[in-house]
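FAQ
Q: What does a multi-component entry look like?
A: The components come first, one per line:
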Amino acid sequence: MDHDQDCPGLLPEPPAAELKLVCVLHALADPMRLRIVAELAGAGGDELNCLAFELPVTKSTMTHHFRVLREAGVIRQHRRGTSKMNTLRTEDLAARFPGLLEAVLAALPHCPRDAHATPAAGLETNC
Amino acid sequence: MDHDQDCPGLLPEPPAAELKLVCVLHALADPMRLRIVAELAGAGGDELNCLAFELPVTKSTMTHHFRVLREAGVIRQHRRGTSKMNTLRTEDLAARFPGLLEAVLAALPHCPRDAHATPAAGLETNC
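Then the predicted structure of the entire assembly, as tokens:
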């Protein structure tokens, strides 16, 4: 679970072979977490600092969302100084659940970085 | 929302064009609901009676799971006499979220109808 010895600064995460479908679906089943995933996907593999996500939630709620995504295996987090850097675990997800992340990303509305004031269409909180 | 006038016995459901990704993901993010979806997919479009699902949960919990799936638009439910009959909304889901249901079903372990005593591998409740 903890790869710190191999990669200093890496926060604990499940190995690719142990990702669980229920946990990944749960992690994705939230509009804020979907926005994080969409922004990371749009970064094309680049790491994004948590502070780059201008979500309309408190810092502690944002920390919670990133932790849910990391513990489910959707994202990878590294500490860099006082920052946490994030990437999507695209290859691990594709290997374990082929087509799932692509289908979710394709279903998301366009989510521009400068449109944080209102939720993107289709990302309503309530069912 | 309510198609009863068009189709007597149909329980209320969201129209295909109004299915929400977050709600569908939430509905799928549960091991019992995934088993229901897997069994319905295995039925090849045939209707299945709620009573045909021998899940290790109480009747009220089972009713809850079916309702969550129906209200998210994952399944369709008809009353037939005192029974509720269920089908997957495969075409509606494919039209709104192409590839999503297929990816989820492909990620599921084989879930035989006679293996209800223990959860199928990969369908653990805890993340």
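Q: Is there any commentary attached?
A: Sometimes. For this entry: The beta strands of chain A are 48-49, 75-80, 83-88.
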